[in-house]
């Protein structure tokens, strides 16, 4: 259980090092206050995973450092049941001159483990980290991924009741990230509380029960993880427009600076003629665009998401080498055909109009879940998983007579 109420944290920013000394000597303020957290309140129940989203500088890492005791709050209350451990900034709590073996002891003591607990779990930590003989080498010789492996292994074996994960997890290789995610799910199923900070939006959707969004030190959203991701995308999409004072809301669920918009659209199966089609059938998307001013570099982007809000496929006309050009007041219909080789289920289409390759510089129009369609059954051969991948199978006519290996021996190429 994690309970936070009205948490505040500020830092003093000095323009040069000498100002710090002058302020201490003269007593006159020579700093600019930076409010990293402003009245944050939330709760994480047992067995719950809370995602934390926000732009760089929003206050995410400061929050985790307060919860782990690295920093002390200026005001507010924090209550945490049991031991709290976490994987914060890469290398936190480690001595680069000591071996990984010795750093297990140091880091274990820092997270509240006793010497007896460390010794009883040392071998399990080493095996989980998969560092092998490198465990006896100085930490300064480790790659960032190896440091992450050791840090996660120590933290998860400290038997915490609350686990905090920062962006450091992203530096590991794909295999070990999957291993960490599996262990996090096991920790959750055992009743542990997890605060998960990440820019990996799919991971937040799939792992978190709910998510909150921090903006300039304030809690601006706390709710469903999928809605939180959409809210965060909205912040990112309108960042440039807000800086220039050009952003304006146009209608419920739609946002952008308004130079162009999608007037209407439909997504229908080629054979079904309806928003329900079979897997493998072509999905025909028709959109009517309107430009309110001349645009020489207009990009149409789309993202298909499943019922969990997980991104399945996204692309835009700039990436396809087909940028659009519209005159002021011009309307144009754009038609797209997508072979829906995806698993049966319900899906949505998020659509956007922007410039160049992404929406971060100029987002003219954006709407989450603008269109919906459903894949029911298979129009072609069935498959398992999320999507069909191209597959080729070759069968040799016979096994050479001089083959000496067992028929069941693995083939290594």
Automatic annotation (TrEMBL):
<dbReference type="InterPro" id="IPR050683">
    <property type="entry name" value="Bact_Polysacc_Export_ATP-bd"/>
</dbReference>
<dbReference type="Pfam" id="PF00005">
    <property type="entry name" value="ABC_tran"/>
</dbReference>
<dbReference type="InterPro" id="IPR027417">
    <property type="entry name" value="P-loop_NTPase"/>
</dbReference>
<dbReference type="InterPro" id="IPR029439">
    <property type="entry name" value="Wzt_C"/>
</dbReference>
<feature type="domain" description="ABC transporter">
    <location>
        <begin position="2"/>
        <end position="241"/>
    </location>
</feature>
<protein>
    <submittedName>
        <fullName>Teichoic acids export ATP-binding protein TagH</fullName>
        <ecNumber>3.6.3.40</ecNumber>
    </submittedName>
</protein>
<dbReference type="Pfam" id="PF14524">
    <property type="entry name" value="Wzt_C"/>
</dbReference>
<keyword id="KW-0813">Transport</keyword>
<dbReference type="GO" id="GO:0005524">
    <property type="term" value="F:ATP binding"/>
</dbReference>
<dbReference type="InterPro" id="IPR003593">
    <property type="entry name" value="AAA+_ATPase"/>
</dbReference>
<keyword id="KW-0067">ATP-binding</keyword>
<keyword id="KW-0547">Nucleotide-binding</keyword>
<keyword id="KW-0378">Hydrolase</keyword>
<dbReference type="GO" id="GO:0016020">
    <property type="term" value="C:membrane"/>
</dbReference>
<dbReference type="InterPro" id="IPR015860">
    <property type="entry name" value="ABC_transpr_TagH-like"/>
</dbReference>
<dbReference type="GO" id="GO:0016887">
    <property type="term" value="F:ATP hydrolysis activity"/>
</dbReference>
<dbReference type="InterPro" id="IPR003439">
    <property type="entry name" value="ABC_transporter-like_ATP-bd"/>
</dbReference>
<dbReference type="GO" id="GO:0140359">
    <property type="term" value="F:ABC-type transporter activity"/>
</dbReference>
<comment type="similarity">
    <text>Belongs to the ABC transporter superfamily.</text>
</comment>
